[in-house]
Structures are given as structure tokens and as C-alpha cells.
Specification:
It catalyses: D-ribulose 1,5-bisphosphate + O2 = 2-phosphoglycolate + (2R)-3-phosphoglycerate + 2 H(+); 2 (2R)-3-phosphoglycerate + 2 H(+) = D-ribulose 1,5-bisphosphate + CO2 + H2O. This protein has 161 residues and is of the alpha+beta class. The chain is 30% helix and 22% strand.
């Protein structure tokens, strides 16, 4: 009934791993790692993420896997953007951590079913592009600034070819 995330956590020196895991859960759910006066205006228990386990990464010094459970009430139904913004949006710049990486995400089927999905299938996309028998890929042109129109067009052409 919860979304389960596994984060690889490297705490700052002097920060216990349990504190780092709890801080990740708080920062990525109710929005802060400390108590603020507005906490009393809502039921935080209903929305807060919980770090339910933390394990050392074998062979890696000062690295841990923090397992965090997020209640579905925290997320807007049908919104992948809302889910990822909540879980990974602000937490990666968190000062209590030297490094943080989302390693795994388990999403309950009940929540997955709220996503509408694309309005049509892959065959329609292949027909529009007249591309069959290979993966369909997209790209971001770099550099994003400074290319002439001609060179930008050339880069787009090479990407879509």
C-alpha cells in the first residue's frame, strides 16, 4: 500500500546513518528535516515518509541503503511527475548527505493503475515515423545554446535519421 524506495546514502562525517535515512524520508515527503510551526496544522503521520530499514553497502565505506516507505496519500493519482518530484525533487541537494542515489522504486499496482498511459500504442508512433524493426530513441541537442540554425538542423537530422 506504500511506494517503497531504496536510496544509496553517504552521510556527511558525523551524521549517523539512521539520522541520514530519517532525514531523506522527511525531506522527500513532508518537506523538512526539522520541526516547523506549521507541522501542527496537519496530520504529518498521514503523509510522512518513513525510513524503515538501513543497511551498510557491502564493500563500500560509509555507504548505506536507506529503505523509505511513502504513503499513497502523499501523491496525486495519475501523476508520474508528482510522484517523482516528491521523491527525488529536492532531496538530492540535502546538506546532511555527501551523496544520494535512488537505487530502486517499488510502486503498488493500485497506484500504477491510476496512470492513463499514452493515448495510443507504439504501432501508431512507428506508423507516423515510418520506422520499424528498431528502437525509437529521442535526444537532447547539445550544446543547447550557440549552434547556428543550420548546425542545429544538422544535429536534429542526425538524431532522427
Amino acid at each position: 500500500t506504500d511506494i517503497l524506495a531504496a536510496f544509496r546514502v553517504t552521510p556527511q562525517p558525523g551524521v549517523p546513518p539512521e539520522e541520514a535515512g530519517a532525514a531523506v524520508a522527511a525531506e522527500s515527503s513532508t518537506g523538512t528535516w526539522t520541526t516547523v510551526w506549521t507541522d501542527g496544522l496537519t496530520s504529518l503521520d498521514r503523509y510522512k515518509g518513513r525510513c524503515y530499514n538501513i543497511e551498510p553497502v557491502p564493500g563500500e565505506e560509509d555507504q548505506y541503503i536507506a529503505y523509505v516507505a511513502y504513503p499513497l496519500d502523499l501523491f496525486e493519482e495519475g501523476s508520474v511527475t508528482n510522484m517523482f518530484t516528491s521523491i527525488v525533487g529536492n532531496v538530492f541537494g540535502f546538506k546532511a548527505l555527501r551523496a544520494l542515489r535512488l537505487e530502486d522504486l517499488r510502486i503498488p499496482i493500485a497506484y500504477v493503475k491510476t496512470f492513463q498511459g499514452p493515448p495510443h500504442g507504439i504501432q501508431v508512433e512507428r506508423d507516423k515515423l515510418n520506422k520499424y524493426g528498431r528502437p525509437l530513441l529521442g535526444c537532447t541537442i547539445k550544446p543547447k545554446l550557440g549552434l547556428s540554425a543550420k548546425n542545429y538542423g544538422r544535429a536534429v537530422y542526425e538524431c532522427l535519421r
